[in-house]
Design goal:
392 residues, twelve-stranded mixed sheet, single chain
Length: 392
């Protein structure tokens, strides 16, 4: 099936002033689009300047979302007149498939589709089917995952699973209806998201990951209720420290609920058994957990803490992000990216120049923002790209 849209891009460039040196995208020498050298010298696993391999690729398929979570896309900024990307600016499914096929020889083995809300992109299951078939044809073990707010998942889960989606992550920041709707600011109920999670499990996903962003004064009292709700279910629950991504969420350190405090709350209610990291570069510290009084469940429910503020894990970071309009970012906290559109769009785009560019960008990467967050000045903090643009 051909998804290629030959129409020229009319894309919006987010005006981001580059105010820091350490975290901007590498100053790579871009290869000409009509490069004569077609040799596959770009192939083979690549490591960055800090010896970190490239394993994960997160691709935003849209910058739009039907939630207005106050820690991500507050209505005051992302209102009715906000200039989201026009459809013509979005990477086509063919372009995304070409990008993934080019990144795999460099070591990428996991692709996560994000947004915005990825299920707002029509026919997303067709992209998933294309990526799955592409990996099967080349005998490459590619893990295809997706992150969603869950609002549309109940009607989509079966099709996504049939298409080849391997893993799904759902955001759910509270069980209390009032708190949840205050946080998502979109009049979407907890029940809607829970139906989506149930539908995913019924569709054959062996385990669903549930992400909870905690902000002090908002939802820290939801830690234990959420853990108790999913106890005994094939769910991996993740509590995430509120991060200073973008410039619209009013982040301060006072808003962070530290992982150590989260752990203490859980230990008062549950018996936690530490779990080893499932893979190098894993962001969560994980435990299996059961009730202290009646540890009877035979289903191992997993809980994890992502302490990216108080216990930075940049040393093992193996992720890059592609925005919906084709910008490559090598750090979630970056201010600028590398434009891949000339290597993806148009009849003269070929695999080798794109692959060589990707290798050059990753091999020069030095990002470790979370480890040196305190050293970054206030002006630099205020110029980071927004989460909905970067993808989660």
């Amino acid at each position: 099936m051909n998804f290629l849209d030959p129409s020229p891009a009319r894309h919006r460039t987010i005006p981001i002033q580059d105010a820091r040196e350490r975290y901007v995208a590498p100053d790579v020498q871009l290869l000409p689009q009509h490069a004569e050298d077609r040799s596959p010298d770009y192939m083979g696993p690549v490591q960055d300047a800090l010896d970190r391999p490239w394993h994960d690729l997160r691709i935003s398929v849209t910058d739009q979302c039907n939630f207005r979570c106050r820690y991500c896309m507050p209505k005051e900024v992302f209102g009715r007149d906000y200039p989201f990307l026009p459809h013509s600016a979005l990477l086509s499914f063919d372009e995304i498939a070409h990008l993934v096929a080019t990144a795999v020889p460099l070591g990428v083995r996991k692709v996560r589709l994000t947004g915005g809300e990825p299920l707002l992109r029509k026919h997303l299951e067709q992209l998933i089917a294309t990526l799955a078939a592409q990996a099967e044809a080349r005998a490459v073990p590619l893990n295809i995952a997706m992150t969603s707010n869950g609002s549309l998942l109940a009607t989509k889960a079966a099709a996504l699973r049939s298409a080849g989606l391997g893993r799904i992550t759902v955001s759910l920041d509270a069980l209390d209806e009032r708190i949840f709707q205050q946080m998502n600011d979109a009049d979407v109920s907890v029940a809607t998201v829970l139906r989506g999670i149930d539908a995913a499990l019924q569709a054959g996903f062996e385990r669903v990951k549930v992400n909870v962003v905690l902000r002090r004064g908002w939802n820290e009292d939801q830690i234990v209720p959420l853990a108790r709700h999913f106890l005994g279910m094939p769910v991996s629950l993740r509590f995430i420290e509120f991060m200073d991504v973008g410039q619209s969420n009013g982040w301060t350190m006072a808003h962070v609920v530290p992982g150590a405090e989260i752990l203490q709350r859980l230990q008062r209610e549950f018996h936690l058994t530490p779990l080893a990291p499932a893979a190098k570069g894993e962001t969560a510290r994980r435990w299996a957990y059961q009730e202290l009084s009646t540890p009877t469940s035979t289903v191992q429910t997993e809980i994890g803490l992502i302490n990216s503020v108080t216990q930075a894990f940049c040393g093992d970071c193996n992720r890059a992000r592609i925005t919906a309009d084709g910008q490559l970012f090598t750090c979630l906290f970056a201010q600028s990216g590398v434009n891949l559109l000339p290597y993806l769009r148009g009849g003269d785009a070929t695999t080798q120049p794109l692959g060589r560019l990707l290798r050059a960008v990753w091999s020069q990467r030095t990002d470790r923002y979370s480890e040196v967050r305190k050293e970054v000045n206030v002006k630099a903090r205020a110029n980071k790209a927004e989460m909905n643009y970067l993808g989660g």
